[in-house]
Amino acid sequence: MALGPIRITASAKINLYLAVGASRPDGYHDVTTILHALKFGDEIVMRPADSLSLASDADLGIPEHENLAYRAAQAFAAALGREADVAIELSKRVPHAAGLGGGSSDAAAVLLGMAHLWNLKGHEKTMLSVAAALGADVPFFLDGGAALYDGRGDRRARSVPALELPVALIRPPVAISTVEAYRAFDGLSQATVPGPEAVIEALERGSAQMLGAALYNNMTDAALGLAPAVADAIALCQAAPGVHGAAMCGSGSAVFALCASDAAAREVTSSACERGWWGMVTRMQSARVEVQRVWEVW
Fold it and tell me: Is residue 190 a contact partner of residue 29, using CB atoms and an 8 Å limit?
């Protein structure tokens, strides 16, 4: 046997708390959010190659060079002054335009994979800088777990305790563009938002009930104007037995439910699938992102 490629699970995320503020002079918005990684995600396999390539098992509707995973490899290699000599195979499981952070997680997984393939040490700051330039959520996925972010959603304010609760993910058959969601948000009058303290306290106490009651996302109304079916998805989750609380993922269109058991999570996803929606049972993840070396038999 010989060392083969590396495999990384590019974890999806949920926003336990999301408070978007006013538009800033730089065109971004002030964002305060608590992100939590999930065990569910895309899978990425990487290996050394003569030149950079990306192959996906799903039609993503964009050219290879526009994919965030491909751009991550290009940017990291350029920052290090070397060639991006890696082949990337992407198995897509996270729905597009769902608010689950699939593209950002793929990008972070590629950065971690390249660091592993190239046996890099001492380049953490470079990796973090590249991640932040790729997108606000990308730095979070380098570590996973749970954390409070502020700034434009890209500045890690503090780590918070991570839990491992069952989660049901459901998504009506509608995509919501992040750009369109923020445009709709800017057109609405905004109420005063609660701070993230209730979510942080729930995580510190390890209380699923407290956490379910504290979930907050002020992008929800903007998303409902674009995709009313999201309201149906939230209502389905909230009415299901064994659900502590439910909220929209990011700017939509997926919804997550914090559940008392895996069985309760399966009931939620079954109800969603009966409507022809997408559903997935997973768990919140406290572990850091792992890069696994695959052994090949010659």
Answer: no
Specify the fold of 2-160+288-296.
Ribosomal Protein S5; domain 2 (3.30.230)
Would you call 92 a catalytic residue per the annotation? Answer: no
Pick the catalytic residue from 13, 42, 92, 154: 13
| Separation of alpha carbons 281 and 165, rounded Å | 11
Catalytic pick among 42, 106, 137, 154: 137
Does 13 participate in catalysis according to the annotation? yes
Which pair of structure tokens corresponds to residue 22? 């006013």
Q: Give tens-digit pLDDT for 36-55.
A: 999 999 999 999 999 999 99
Fold of 166-283: Alpha-Beta Plaits (3.30.70)
Read off the pLDDT of residues 52-80 as tens digits, 9 standing for 90 and up.
999 999 887 788 889 999 999 999 999 99
